[in-house]
Amino acid sequence: MNYTLFLVGLFIIAAGLGCLETATTPFVTVLGPESSGHFRLNLAQTFNSFGAIIAVVFGQSLILSNVPHQSQDVLDKMSPEQLSAYKHSLVLSVQTPYMIIVAIVLLVALLIMLTKFPALQSDNHSDAKQGSFSASLSRLARIRHWRWAVLAQFCYVGAQTACWSYLIRYAVEEIPGMTAGFAANYLTGTMVCFFIGRFTGTWLISRFAPHKVLAAYALIAMALCLISAFAGGHVGLIALTLCSAFMSI
Hints:
This protein is mainly alpha-helical and about 250 residues long. Helix content is about 80%, strand content about 0%. This is H+ symporter permease.
């Protein structure tokens, strides 16, 4: 039951973040000339990368460093009482960090409530009457680029989540003697690569065609994923770490 509640909490967090990003992304793109909307969007998302770095360091110091990672062989040799105590220690290790996060999120939400954002008005007054949600969705579905963009975004988010969530386990399983706490350093490196890639990408798309920069990033990211899948060891781990630099725009 406790694990179920934990999953419900994670679902609520993800839903809230999804709604927040869905609302703010269009807002950022219209706060200026349409031609530079993609530049402002990537620049704003750079702070997301910076926050991810802080989150990894935060989790490493308050979660992974307090509870040693146990291999499956060690877990199999534990008595039911020892296994229960170990799992309980894992649960307790995330309590304090999440309470700190709750306090920070509430503070940020309060600041957002007190901030006066500029009112945006469409140049086309007919936009005020867009019809129902289903009508708007139907209108978007007729745009070929939009359909492909939704599919591409779905695949991108899945690939990014898989790479980030599996990196620590990949390091522990592929590198002899690697601990989860030390492997978190590679996850921090991943976020740093993501941060650098986002900054570099923001600069590149201001000078080259955005779709060409995106295509180049995607091809490099796929190549690095293939290396991590087939090479293994330190080479695979480094490739998996560097991959985030090219999943950043």
